[in-house]
Amino acid sequence: MKTEYLDYALKQLETILNIPSPSGFTEKAVEYCAKEFASLGFEPQISAKGGLIVCLGGEGEPIVLGAHLDTLGAIVREVKPNGALRVAAIGGLQANNTETESVQVYTRSGNVLEGTFQLENASVHVNGEYAKTQRTFDSVELLLDEKTHSAEQTRALGVEVGDFVAVEPRFKVTKSGFIKSRFLDDKLSAAILLAFAKYAHDEGIVFARKVYLDFTVFEEVGHGGAVIPKDAVEMLSVDMGCVGGTLQCDETMVSICVMDSRGPSSKKVVDDLVQAAKRANVRYALDVYPYYGSDADVALGAGYDVRHCVVGAGVYASHGYERSHVEGLSNTFDLLVSYLPAKVCEK
Predict the structure, then answer these.
(1) Of 36, 129, 160, 219, which residue is the catalytic one?
(2) Which residue among 52, 175, 216, 235 is least packed, with the fewest CB closer than 10 Å?
(3) CA distances to 57, 121, 228 from 273, in Å
């Protein structure tokens, strides 16, 4: 991966990570990416559902490279008598690893209020049961950084049931190349696909297959990939590669998923990806994901007749404060370049 594309991917990653986009609240992230694709000379289309589809051109069997812009988050479900908020998780947000995190509450009036997830009665010098209390979104509340001590005072700030809550990502790239942030799942892959589009533009690539990029916006709640381009015959869900347990992948590699919780990937696609990885000297792992479903699975469930697989840079601590590496980003990009070569021009 050329340095210019790596730098571009990291810049885009930081930018889109800092645009809050829990499922159902993705409009600004989609608009930003649409403008970025347009600046590269492509014609992005925003679907009725709010997703983003971009055709990079090419000829031959159409393939969809899918990533998702939506993230975990929360929504206000109760304004409590003490002025704090009880929330409902969007997707797999975990109370036990969001406790003490800074958040923003987006009200319908347009106000953005700061706050923190805290255990109820969070002072250890007061609460003798602090260490024993199970963390759930019934025991962890959202404490607004406002002078409010009643439901009436909080509602006077414009807060109401249904307001979206976004957790700060805390993006950082270490000197050793580790990328740390919430929501690398799946904004890391979205940044890789933006870089892939820039590569196609800058290098004047005409692909040997018709290539779509599909940024979905409801993956975390299970129906992101329910609508894809109708002429597609293959879908690669470019999502996070799982790291942990007995899996082979680490953060510096690209993972090729041979089976997830819903069943095996297409053997042809897996075999072709392995060949592409070997051609490009890409460091890759083959893994079975035990608790994982993707937009490609959703597309199959919706009735699309496509071959499918999941690939992605290795990400540790999924649905928490996640970690990947610039080498994992690069290996994923290089795999896609090798898998989708330029059309050979006849002399």
Answers:
(1) 219
(2) 175
(3) 21, 52, 21
How far are the Cα atoms of 59, 343 from residue 346, in angstroms, in the given order? 14, 9
Q: Is 158 exposed, middle or buried (0-12, 13-18, 19+ CB in 10 A)?
A: middle
> What is residue 171's three-state secondary structure?
coil
Residues of the chain with pLDDT under 70: 344-347
pTM of the model: 0.97
Q: Is 219 a catalytic residue?
A: yes
- Helix, strand, coil share (%) of the chain residues, nearest 5: 30, 30, 40
pLDDT at 347 (0 to 100): 43
- Each residue of 270-309: b (16+ CB within 10 Å) or e? beebbebbeebebbbbbbbbeebbbbbbbbbeeebebbbb
Among 307, 183, 198, 192, residue whose Cα is nearest residue 238: 192
Rg (CA), the chain: 21
Residue 159 · residue 80 · CB < 8 Å: no
